[in-house]
Each structure stands twice: as C-alpha cells, then as structure tokens.
Amino acid sequence: MPWGPLGPIGLLVDPMTWRAAPYLLVSGAFGLMWYFVLAITISVSLALAVVWVGVPLVIATMLLWRGGARLERRVLRLAFGLDIADPYRPRPRRGLGAHVRWLMKDPATWRDLGYLLMLLPLGFVEGVLSFMSWMVAGGLLLAPMLYGLQEASGGSGYFVEGWTEAWFAGVCGVPALIGCLYLVRGMAWLHGTLATVLLGGGEEERLRASRARGVDAAEAERRRIERDLHDGAQQRLLSVAVDLGRAQAKFDSDPETVRELIAQAHAGTKAAIAELRNLARGIHPAILSDRGLDAALSGLAARAPIRVDVSVELADRPPAAVESIAYFTVAESLANMAKHSGATEASVTVFRDRRGVVVDVWDNGIGGAAVVPEGGLSGLADRAATIDGVLVVHSPMGGPTFIRAELPCEW
C-alpha cells in the first residue's frame, strides 16, 4: 500500500483514508454483482459446452471476468492509490487456437476469477463493519445536535436523556471516529494486500514476463542494427571499394576519371561515417555518456520541429541503463509527435520519486497515440519492462498526449 502508519491527525487529513471509506462501504455490492454474473454465465456456458454451443460462451465469460479484473485494478487505484499493473502474458500474434490456449494457460486469468469470487464475502464483512463503525461514530458525534433538535420539536426517543449525556456522547464520538478511521485503514490495507497478490500476480511471474519482454526487445534491436548496417553503411562502403578498384585500374591510362572516382569514394566514405555515427547514436548517444541526461534531452529538444521545454530535476545521475531508457523514451515520443501529432508545443519533465526516475512527455497535438504490437510505443514499453519499469500512455482523440515512463532504480 502507498501509505504508512499515521497518527490521529494524519488520519483525519489524509485524503487516501476518505477515498478508501466509500469503496469499503460498497465493495460488498460489487462482490454480489460479480457473484451473480459469474454464477449465471459460467453455469450456462458449461452446460451448453457439451453441444459445442457453450464453447464460445466459455471464452466470452473468461474475457468478461478478465475485463472485470482490469476494471477493479483501476478502481483500486482511485480508492487506495494502489498501482497494480496488468500481469497477463503477451498475447500471441495470430491464430484462434493460440489465443484460446493463451487465455486458458495464463495463471492471471484464474487469479482474476478467484479475486472476483472472493470479493463477495470480503466485501460483505468490510461493508458491515464500515457501516456499523460509521453509524456509531456519527451517532455519538451528532448527539448534541440531534438532542437539541429533539428538544426543540418536543419529541423523544433519542438514546441520551439530558444535555449532560448528549455532550458526553459527543466527546466520546471523537475517539470513536478515530477508531473508525483506523478500522478503515486496516481493512484497506488488508484488501489491498489481497488484491496485489491475486490481481497483480507473484513476483516470479512478473519477473519472468519482464525478462521475456526484455529478450524480445533486445532481439528486435539486434535485427534493427543488422538491417541498418546492411542497407546503409555496408552498401556505401561497398560502393567506395568499387570506386577505388576502378580508380586503381585506370590510374595510368585515365587520370581525370581517377580523380572523379576518388572524389566519389571520398564522398561515399564521409556518408558511411555519418551513417555509422547515427547508428551509434541510436545504440547509445555519446552525449548521454559524456554529459548526462539533461544535455542529451536538451539536444533532442533543439532538433525538434517545435518548441519543447525540458526540465530535468535529478540531483545525481541515475544508472546508465535507466538513463538510456529515459533518453530513448523521449526520443521516440518526440519523433512520433513530429510525424503524427500536429502539435505546436511540447514539454519533457524528468524527476525522481521514491521508486526511481519518472519521465513525462506532453504535447498539445491531436492525440490518438496507442501502444500497439510492434509499434514504437510498444518497443518503449518493452525497454522499460527490462528493468521492471512501466510505460503509461494517455492520448484521447483530440489530444493532448501524455506519456509517462516510471523506471525503478537505486542510486
């Protein structure tokens, strides 16, 4: 959970406590809804599976509860400030059978079902305890006011008799409210812990997925370097060798042609050097190693077609791997912005939080950016995953676009 122990005053002013309270009151209703939905859909689809009609319904039901688990992760982020990443294995590129096997063999699918079924008993207990504690605390705190209204109307029936008891109940309401808030905090911690285990997956599973994505990203990068070398610098150097061979053959018989061939070879050599320099910059720019992230990102902003504000708030340099991922996140984001967004201004902010380095890229373009398989943003997500980082893209149609990379590290 993102919040540690607090004193009574901290409990009262901490917004996370008040965000968790309404969720705990209604979590039982969520659990009841999912229990009936899953009980009906699972029983119907399994009953029809014997005649094959239910097979698509079974798959649809599994997708339904995975979607419900995704929604629950977003709700828990709002209620508890709990950031649980989707733990699902990478989706296969094609094939209906491959997709069905992927869906059924992914442990996260069945953990999602377990969480949604657990939500009913857990939510019932949370709802009852929350309702009773809030009623007791509220009744005691409001006792003087309610007794005064009762006296003014001439009615009766409130649980106190006389102003002394009313004020005493009001004073007792303060520790009751504090106890209620501690109860809310404890139930939120318990609920968040269970949700992290079931909805987030185990540490081993996440590390395995992260390593797999890292291997895929490294393999894709190797293929890109091979392709760039073959199609660029290698072809130019081959042309230089041919020109020099022709010049050697004509050295005595045609000096003028030799001069032209040497000039072509010289120009080809310079072009090959430039391409090799650009390729090396794509692997790891020299300015990043020599002068750090601030200077490297400022260089990217200076080459952008629009004004880009850069703010790097890092007291010390992070590890080289984190610097590299942060640099390429900004580079790819600005490149996409220049090609597709139609933005007129952008900003890049890099700062350190309690977990590591956070990179924010914003532009006021038309939006519509998304993480799609084999796309540029997907490659950035894979780079971030190699160090258990996360890439978040928010780009509604019409804009603006906001990209955040959270890169955990230790200095």
- What proportion of the residues is helical, as a percent range? 55-70%
Give the neighbour order of strands across the main sheet: 1-2-3-5-4
Number of strands: 5
How large a portion of the residues is in β-strands, by DSSP E?
5-15%
What number is the mean pLDDT?
80
Order of helices and strands: HHHHHHHHHHHEHEEHEE
What general outline do the C-alpha atoms trace?
elongated
Structure report:
70% of the residues lie in helices and 9% in strands. The chain is of the alpha+beta class and 411 residues long. The chain folds into 3 domains: 8-200, no CATH class; 210-283; 290-408, 2-Layer Sandwich (Heat Shock Protein 90), CATH 3.30.565. Strands 1-2-3-5-4 form a 5-stranded mixed sheet. Strand 1 (307-313), helix 12 (320-341) and strand 2 (345-352) form a beta-alpha-beta unit. Helix 8 runs antiparallel to helix 9 (255-283), helix 11 packs parallel to helix 12 and helix 12 packs antiparallel against helix 13. The two termini are 23 Å apart.
What layout of secondary structure does this protein have?
Layout: H1 8-13, H2 15-48, H3 54-80, H4 96-105, H5 107-141, H6 143-153, H7 163-200, H8 203-249, H9 255-283, H10 286-291, H11 293-303, E1 307-313, H12 320-341, E2 345-352, E3 356-363, H13 376-385, E4 390-394, E5 401-408
Parallel strand pairs: 1-2
Antiparallel strand pairs: 2-3, 3-5, 4-5
